[in-house]
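In this section we walk through a basic example: taking a raw amino acid sequence and producing a predicted 3D structure, encoded as C-alpha cells. The instruction is simple. Fold the sequence below.
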Amino acid sequence: MGAFENIGISDPVSLKRRFEQLIGNSPAIEEVLEQVERVAPTDSTVLIQGETGTGKELIARAIHNISSRCGNSFVKMNCAAIPLDLLESELFGHEKGAFTGAIAQRIGRFELADKGTLFLDEVGDIPLVLQPKLLRVLQEQEFERLGSTQTHHMNVRLVAATNRDLTEMVKRGEFRSDLYYRLNVFPILLPPLRARREDIPALVTHFIEIFCRRMGKQIEHIPPETMIALNSYPWPGNIRELQNLIERAVILSNFGVLPNPLPTAASKDAVIVPAATTLRDSERALILNTLEEVDWVIGGTKGAAAKLGLKRTTLICKMQKLGIFRPSPEGSQAITGPSPPEPVSLSRQ
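The resulting C-alpha cell sequence is shown next.
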C-alpha cells in the first residue's frame, strides 16, 4: 500500500466519485477534486504539481479510477529513483543484448501501460538527453525498445507529477520547453497541508484508526493540547509527515491517550487554548487565539488568515459560522460561543 492510499475525502458525495478513500472536505482539496472530475473522462495529459508529501500519486490514481481506462493497468514509475543509465530502458524496454547486462528482453513501462494510465512521478528528473524521446511518445504514441528498430504503437494516458518548478527549469535550460508545454496540458496544483488545516483533525483520526488496527492498540482520548499543537504546526513534510508522526504517537501511547509526537521546539510554538469537546470548539479556540495574537488583523501577509493558512474570505466565513466577533473598543466581551470545553474523546458509545 502506498503512503497516501488512505488520504482524501470520505463524505457520501465523494464516494460516488469513486475516489480512493479521500479524507477531508476543505475548500482547497474540494477544488482539486473538481478539477480531477473534469479532466478524468478525457485522455488529456495531466501535470500534478505540489510539495513533497501532498499526495500526488493518490490524485493520479483518482484520475485513473474515474476514467474510462479504470479497468486497465495503472503503471507508476518514480523517475528520481531510477539510475540515469537505466531510465530509458525502464521507460521503453530493451531487447536482449542491447547493452551490457541486458541478458533478456524487457518490457518498458509505456508498453505495460498500454490502454491504461502511466504515472511518471518526479518527471522533472528526466535528463535532457532523454526528453526528446519522451516528447515523441507523447505526440506520436509510438517508440522503439533499446536495441530494436521495430516501432511499437500504444495507447497510453500520461499523468506526470513533480515538486520542482518546471518553468524555472525551462528558463535555465534544464528542461525542454516543448516537453513542458506537452506535459502541462491540464495542470493540477495540490495544496500543502498548511493550506487545508480544516482537514487535519479528520486525517489524525483516520491515521489513528489505521495504526491502532495494525498494532492492536486502542486510542480513546486526544488531549486538546495535542490536537492544537498538530493544528498549529507548519507541516513542511505535509501529509506524509503527519502520517509518520501519528504512527509514532500510537507506538508511544499509554492508557489509550495519544501523546504529542511533535518535537519539543515545535510544541512550544503551538497555540495554547482551553480544552475542547468537539472539533468545532477546537477550531474556534484556535482562530480566537490567532486573532488575538495579530491584534484582530484578518488580511495581509501578517494577518490571521495567512497565519492559519486560509483565504481571507474563508476565515471571515468561519468566524461568522463560529460566532466570533471582535471585542468592543470599551473592552466588553463581544465574543459569543460555548463555555470552556472539555477534552476530545475518541471512544465510541
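Looking at the output, two observations stand out. Residues 233 and 270 are 7 Å apart (CA to CA). Residues 1-17, 270-277, 331-345 have pLDDT under 50 and may be disordered. In the next section we compare this with other chains.
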